[in-house]
Amino acid sequence: MKFNFPKSERLTQLKIIDSLFQKDSQTVRSRFVYPFRVLYQVSSSVSSHNTPQIVISVPKRKFKKAVDRNLIKRRIREAYRLTKPFFEGEDFQSLPCYIGFVYIGSAIEPYDLIKKRMESIVQEFSTAKS
Hints:
Largest sheet: 4 strands, mixed
Number of helices: 3
Low-confidence stretches: none
Distance between the termini: 26 Å
Radius of gyration: 14 Å
């Protein structure tokens, strides 16, 4: 198992990010799993990526200090990096192409809670047949 998070798994295309965060979009679905709001989009075209591309957002309105926002982003990235290899295989193909994690918690949650919720999110995606 490889516990890596290469650049190819990071969502950097502004057009896709804008469409992911667009209000009232028909192609974007969302789920709430505290402390996350998960936005995901299943692309109709065949993607060259085997794994989904993700973007992580922590609102500046709730966390004024960049140190706090970066800490939360690091915890989310690490939880995703350690969780995703356990769901690779034939079920991994059912994951969405693009996933956005928006941190909606009002306090900095401990890493254990973030990892547990990340496992439940990825497990829910891998078992759901869309």
